[in-house]
Amino acid sequence: MITRYPAPVADPVTLEAHALDLLIQLIRIDTTNPPGGERPAAELCAREFAAAGIPAELLEMAPYRTNVVARLAGSGGGAPLLLAAHLDVVPAAMKDGWRHHPFAAVIDNGYLFGRGTIDMKNMAAMSVATMCALARAGIKPRRDIIFAGVADEEVGCDHGSKFLVEQHPDKVRAEYCLGEVGGFSVNMPGSDRTLYPIQIAEKGICWFVLRARGTAGHGSIPREDNAPARLGAAVARLGKTRLPHRVTPVVERYVAELARAQSRVRGTVLKGLLSPRLASYVLKALPNASMRRVFQAVLANTVSPTVLRAGSKTNVIPATAEAEFDGRTLPGQTAQDLIREVRAALGPEFADLEIEILREHGPSVTEPHASPLFDAIGATLKQHDPQATPIPYMIPGFTDASQWNRLGIRCYGFSPVRFDAKDDVQFGDLYHGVNERISVDGFKWGARVLHDLVKSFCA
Ligand SMILES: [Zn+2]
Fold first, then answer.
1. Model's pTM, two decimal places?
2. Which residues surround ligand 1, an ion (CB under 5 A)?
3. Ligand 1 midpoint to CA 89 (Å)
4. Which tens digits make up the pLDDT trace of 65-115?
C-alpha cells in the first residue's frame, strides 16, 4: 500500500508530525555527494529554526556546499550539547533495483523509502524538530543546544565538519555530541533484550599508494623488472593478508556484552573472537558473511586495494605502476604502525616498492564512555523500551565524529530508531544500500526518544 503524503504541516501539531514532515522534505532534496549541493537542505533547516525563533546561520567553504548551524541558547548552567547530522547522501538510482524512486520519499507498507532515511537525514529532521519543540514550549535549557547540519561527510568532511572545526570552532564547540552511527535497535534471537549499539569509537584512516618502478621499454621484449607485474604480485599478497589480530578495550567490552545477551554456549563461542588463537575459527562459524567482515575489520588494522594505475599503451612497458590502498587503523595505532605491518606482510621480496601516504587521520575514541550523557541515554531508552540495553561499540569507518573530536567534544553515535523484530529489516543492509528505508513508527519513536533525552539532559 502506498500512502501519498499530505501537504507539509504548516503549523506543526506534534513533534513526531513535524519531524516526519521535515524528513520527507529533506529526502526530496537530492544532496548526492559528489557533487553535494547541500544548500537547499541547509536552507530548509534554517527556515524551520527561524519559524521557531531560533537563530541559525549558513556557512560555506564553496558555493552551494552549505552547512547550517543553529543555537538554542541556555542559561549557562553547563557546556553545550551538539546535535550533528550530515546533509549529504551517497548516490542512488532506480536502475540499482529501488522499489521507489530514491528521492521521492514514498511511504509503502509503513516504511518511508529514500536515500538518507537512515544515513542520516532522519537525525537532521529529529534534531531540528526537537529544538523547535523545546523553543516553542518556552523551555530555557541549562546548556546551549547546538545543531550542525553539515555538508560533505560522505566524501571526507572537507566542506563540512572539517571546515567548521577549522574555520568556525566557536560556533560548534561543545562538551558532548550526538550524531551517527548508533541508537538503532537490534533484536537478538532467543533473547528478551533489545540491544542499542552506541558508537563511541571509529577507526582512523591511512590511505596510501604502493609504487613499483621498473625499466620502460618495448612490449615485444619482456623484462624481469616489469613494474605492473611486480605491483600486481604485491597487491595480490596484501589483498589476501590479514594484518595482526588486535583487541582494543572497546571491542572487548562490546563482545562481552553481546555474549551476555546470548545463550551460555553461544556467548562462550563468541568470546573466542578475543583470542588471537581462536578468532579465525569463531569468524568462520558466524552466521553470515557481513557479520564476519565487520568483526574482522574491528579486530585488526586493515588495507583494501582500491585503485590501480599503470601504463597507457598496450605495446609500451611503463616505468611505474601504482596501487592505492584504503588503510584503516585501530585506536592506539598510528599510520606508521599500519605501514610497518604492511611492510612486514610484503616481506623482503617487495622491500624496494615505495609507499607514500596520501591522507591520514587518527582513530577517534570517546573514552571512558561512561558519562552523565551516556547514563541519560540509557535511562531515556529504558523509558521507551523496557528491554533496551545500550552497548558502546566501534565502527570500522569514520564519521564527522573524527572532526568534532579534534575540539575535545565527547561524541556518541546515537540517532535513535526502532525496528520491529517481525519486519526482519537489518540496519546494516540499509546503510548505503538499495531500498534504504525507515519504519515510520520507528522513526517517530526515535524522534520522541531524542526529544526526551535532550530535554532531560539540558533542561
Ligand atoms: Zn552517515
1. 0.89
2. 119-120, 180
3. 7
4. 999 999 999 998 889 999 999 999 999 999 999 999 999 999 999 999 999
- For residue 180, report the distance from its CA to the centre of ligand 1, in Å: 6
Q: 291 alpha carbon to ligand 1 midpoint, in Å?
A: 19
Distance from the alpha carbon of residue 257 to the mean position of ligand 1, in angstroms: 25
Q: Which of 382, 381, 383, 389 is nearest to 191 (CA)?
A: 389
Q: Who contacts 188 (Cβ-Cβ below 8 Å, separation ≥6)?
A: 194, 195, 261, 262
Task: Please tell me the distance between residue 240's alpha carbon and the centre of ligand 1 in angstroms.
Answer: 28
pLDDT, tens only, 344-372: 999 999 999 999 999 999 999 998 889 99
Query: Where do the DSSP E strands lie in 18-93?
Result: 56-60, 66-72, 78-86
412 alpha carbon – ligand 1 mean position (Å) = 14
| Strand stretches in 102-171, DSSP E | 106-108, 111-113, 143-150
CA–centroid distance, 315 to ligand 1, in Å, is 45
Residue 352 sits at φ, ψ, to 5 deg, of -85, -10
| Domains of the chain, earliest start first | 2-189+364-458 (3.40.630.10), 205-361 (3.30.70.360)
Gap from CA of 349 to ligand 1 centroid (Å): 40
Note the pLDDT tens digit of each residue in 127-180.
Answer: 999 999 999 999 999 999 999 999 999 998 999 999 999 999 999 999 999 999
